[in-house]
Amino acid sequence: MLTGVQPWSGKSIDEIYNLVVIKREKLTIPNAIPPPLEKLLQGCFMYDLRSRPSMTDILHLFKRLQNSEEEAFWSFWRGVDSREIRKSSANLGYTEWFLSKDQLQVGDTVRSRKPANSCKHENMDVPEGKVVGLERDTTDSDGFALVKVHGVHDPLRVHVSVLERATKDLASGDWVRLKHVGVGDKRCSPVGIVHSINREGIVAVGFIGLPTLWRGTSSQLQMAEGYSVGQFVKIKANVFTPRFKWIRKGRGVWPTGRISHVLPNGCLEVEFPGVLPSRQEHKSCLADPVEVEIVDFSTCEGVVEKIQHLQDFHWAVSPLLAAMGLLASLKLGGLDHARFYIWI
């Protein structure tokens, strides 16, 4: 549309899939187009559909362009640029398009927004409160809200980008589980991520196995354990055939991997830094969150399990520990230590 060259021209379907889905390659946006249009196009190709502009956002932008004179147009977008920089440091990694999808209103129950790549709240300045005032135009997504928090006399003045609306104790980005899964829904994972919830409690959730968002009421859901990038996970002991193919180590053992991406439907992309590259069938695997469990040092029982988990961080840890064990055994004059380190 902009250059006259069809994107990924001459590529096969498999090659396009590998570039777009696996490598997450994005189109090169020409530099000569106006900055607002460039930002819009970049947003349209975000991997997570929640971070893309809606049709309302697109129409609003083009109307602003149409109604703005040239000088006012550039000054307006210079202001947007500076506002985005300020917001990006405060909104914990969310795009402007993500934040614009849910405008706060007086009377909303809100809480501090957790980081985009985390399932835990790092900053709970507002554990729960009610919006009692808004210091902005109702059509402007940038501004401050006055939040009344229980136990605090005066309302807190908080930037809207660090707040999220909670309805029926649910908010966008929460991990949830279906209370009841029908016989015909076995293809669907019972654990997913909330995409939106309106003020009446109607929820849209992304589940593995469904081609579209699941829609229902909050009463059909319950909170579930969340996962985030950087956590280590392994296949549960009672899972013998995972939904997605998972690599195996020696003796048919499922290796522990580290989450590299959390997809919008709750699917986990897992890498295996503790497995030798030459032995990897795939650089990464997918995982259903209901089939895996988190692994960290607090869940490891005994020294042996802790050392084994240490090896999950990088494949070079194992030979390094073996070399240290051999060196220690030779220095101390005992072979039992060496056999122990070689075994682990």
From TrEMBL:
InterPro entries: Kinase-like_dom_sf, OCM_Kinase. Transmembrane segments: none annotated. PANTHER family: OS06G0639500 PROTEIN, PROTEIN KINASE DOMAIN-CONTAINING PROTEIN. This is Protein kinase domain-containing protein. It comes from Brassica oleracea. The lineage of its organism: Eukaryota, Viridiplantae, Streptophyta, Embryophyta, Tracheophyta.
